[in-house]
Amino acid sequence: MIPGSALLPPQARRLLALFQKLPEGARASLLDYAEFLAAREADPQEVEQNEVPREPLAIPRPEKESVVGAMKRLRKTYPMIDPDRLL
What we know:
5 helices, 87 residues, elongated, mainly alpha
């Protein structure tokens, strides 16, 4: 049992218990599905503001750029990629 889970409603506790029993791949699928359902119910204007672009952004490379600067630029160029996976 997770500390503080007694404060959660019964459905949330049940979902959490089921989530913990799933293998990692199934957990990712469940999270994807939950995000899909939440987005379907969300306000369309709110979704547009929080939507991550699917295509890379055109951010030009400066003539002189440090490695750190390049990583920051690439992180902004590819917002659809998890920054931790980028490294």
